[in-house]
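User: Design a sequence. Structure:
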């Protein structure tokens, strides 16, 4: 039994409600800095819906829960609540966790692409794709943190050692998931990876074919107009 559209989006609805409550709380307390993170995060709640419409896929509820946890654990709890400043390792754990979510999302995208375009890639090529894309995301994440710090005066990046450890922690799960995918393809099935690779695709859009046959009367009318 596959989850319905409503149940699939429960994670993002829950996250959106939490962010809205935090935003209203900041408004009641007139805490200007408290507006920033919830306000910037609210649009990200709609990312899964937009991805589904753009790519014509059904995002698994498990991926949406992982995405919701990342939004809450990272910018919301880390920056808005202030855990980043109270406990330094929190940032490392968020980077490490994000690596698993993004790697699983890459596996899902890979499965959709292979089936939609009827491709058959060697397992090692699939592994290279996962590792390469995940490493690129980790790099872009650090670039985004740099510009975030520059724009808002935060301290997501402290020094070069912090940046490099964040990138390694974020990339490591990609290597682990790539290895698991090779095992799944060649030796023993991994149930969760199999579920991501074979999520049911929506039925293709039915193209409405215009009826080119015209009645004799309409043809006669057009002929008369052209003669006139």
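Assistant: Done.
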């Amino acid at each position: 039994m596959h989850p319905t559209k409503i149940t699939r989006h429960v994670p993002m609805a829950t996250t959106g409600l939490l962010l809205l409550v935090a935003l209203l709380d900041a408004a009641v307390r007139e805490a200007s800095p408290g507006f920033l993170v919830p306000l910037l995060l609210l649009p990200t709640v709609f990312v899964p819906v937009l991805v589904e419409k753009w790519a014509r896929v059904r995002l698994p509820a498990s991926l949406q829960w992982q995405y919701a946890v990342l939004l809450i654990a990272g910018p919301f709890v880390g920056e808005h609540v202030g855990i980043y400043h109270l406990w330094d390792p929190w940032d490392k754990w968020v980077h490490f966790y994000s690596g698993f979510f993004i790697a699983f999302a890459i596996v899902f995208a890979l499965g959709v692409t292979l089936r939609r375009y009827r491709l058959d890639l060697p397992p090692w090529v699939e592994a290279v794709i996962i590792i390469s894309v995940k490493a690129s995301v980790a790099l872009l994440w650090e670039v985004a943190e740099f510009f975030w710090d520059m724009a808002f005066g935060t301290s997501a990046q402290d020094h070069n050692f912090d940046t490099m450890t964040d990138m390694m922690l974020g990339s490591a799960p990609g290597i682990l998931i790539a290895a698991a995918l090779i095992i799944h393809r060649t030796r023993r099935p991994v149930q969760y990876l199999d579920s991501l690779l074979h999520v049911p695709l929506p039925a293709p859009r039915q193209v409405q074919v215009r009826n080119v046959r015209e009645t004799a009367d309409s043809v006669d009318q057009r002929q008369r107009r052209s003669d006139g």
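Residues 88-202 form one domain. The radius of gyration is 24 Å.
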